[in-house]
């Protein structure tokens, strides 16, 4: 299934795509694509419904594909070729940092360069959405806790992240720095999350052209690993790292100034398109 949320910010309705790619209203079935809606039994209930039997929704704004996200967890330097382009060593264990949930926005919403920013950058990433919660999850059981996948643009301000002291979080959590969607594609529709093509363009120039094949730590390991340090709840989002081609890795470096258009996508998971403005 491809689940999504359609409507103005704060007023999104839960929806499912029908066979023609049109959104159908799930409001009579679930309150939102969030929390316990993502449990296996609820997803099974939705899967049993013929989307054509549901009212069609106006295909207006698409919101984040998950609502009421409790934790927005990110994995850094998870592609060896991306680590190399930034001059960092490939980590021996997954690097975990948090992105503010207030950064979350829709896949096609405007991305705002924060005030005093000089190094706003892009990162196409595979998002993993937790269904069944858990803690100390065995790696062999990890995929049972995944509800589905989505596209994420892990927008980053490199000066804030690297040069302003402390953790990475201050360069990762700015408002609009977390476009998520357009869809939550349920796990059963993704045969192998470690074999998905991914790409990102700025004003038509393709900077990132990679594959989840080159992830250092795969989805199964990441879900288990993160759960050793914090419990995972339904609707938590894990962003799993980016392939090479970020602005910081260019020679000379390239950063967003405002006025650009970013387009990005992952095979089978849809595409995003954001214009870049200023806060």
Topology diagram in text:
Layout: E1 2-6, E2 13-17, E3 23-25, H1 40-47, E4 72-76, H2 80-85, E5 95-98, E6 104-105, E7 111-113, E8 120-121, E9 124-130, E10 146-153, E11 156-157, H3 158-163, E12 178-179, E13 184-186, E14 197-202, E15 205-211, H4 219-226, E16 237-239, E17 261-266, E18 270-278
Parallel strand pairs: 4-16, 6-12, 7-18
Antiparallel strand pairs: 1-2, 1-13, 2-3, 4-5, 8-11, 9-10, 9-16, 10-13, 14-15, 14-17, 17-18
Tell me what the structure shows.
- The chain is mainly beta and 279 residues long.
- 10% of the residues lie in helices and 29% in strands.
- The protein is globular.
- The model has no long low-confidence stretch (mean pLDDT 96).
Quick structural overview:
This protein is mainly β.
For the termini, the CA-CA separation is: 36 Å
Indicate the structural class. Answer: mainly beta
- Order of the strands making up the biggest sheet: 3-2-1-13-10-9-16-4-5
Radius of gyration: 18 Å
How can the largest sheet be summarized?
9 strands, mixed
Low-confidence stretches: none
Q: Approximately how much helix is present in the residues?
A: 10-25%
| Structural shape | globular
Average pLDDT figure = 96
């Amino acid at each position: 299934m491809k689940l999504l949320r359609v409507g103005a910010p704060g007023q999104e309705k839960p929806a499912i795509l029908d066979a023609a790619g049109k959104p159908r209203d799930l409001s009579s079935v679930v309150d939102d694509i969030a929390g316990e809606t993502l449990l296996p039994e609820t997803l099974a209930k939705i899967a049993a419904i013929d989307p054509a039997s549901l009212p069609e929704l106006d295909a207006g704004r698409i919101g984040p594909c998950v609502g009421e996200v409790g934790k927005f967890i990110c994995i850094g330097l998870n592609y060896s070729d991306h680590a190399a382009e930034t001059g960092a060593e490939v980590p021996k264990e997954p690097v975990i940092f948090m992105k503010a949930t207030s950064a979350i926005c829709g896949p096609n919403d405007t991305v705002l360069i924060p005030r005093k920013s000089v190094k706003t950058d892009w990162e196409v990433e595979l998002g993993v959405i937790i269904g069944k919660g858990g803690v100390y999850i065995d790696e062999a059981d990890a995929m049972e806790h995944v509800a589905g996948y989505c596209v994420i643009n892990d927008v980053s301000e490199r000066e804030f992240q690297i040069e302003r002291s402390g953790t990475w979080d201050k360069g990762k959590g700015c408002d609009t720095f977390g476009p998520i969607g357009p869809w939550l594609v349920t796990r059963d529709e993704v045969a192998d999350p470690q074999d998905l093509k991914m790409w990102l363009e700025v004003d038509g120039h393709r900077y990132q052209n990679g594959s989840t094949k080159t992830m250092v730590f795969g989805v199964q390991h990441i879900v288990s690993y993160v759960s050793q340090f914090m419990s995972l709840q339904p609707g938590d989002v894990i962003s799993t790292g980016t392939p090479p081609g970020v602005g910081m890795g260019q020679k000379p470096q390239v950063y967003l100034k405002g006025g650009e258009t970013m387009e990005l996508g992952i095979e089978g998971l849809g595409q995003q398109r954001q214009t870049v403005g200023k806060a």
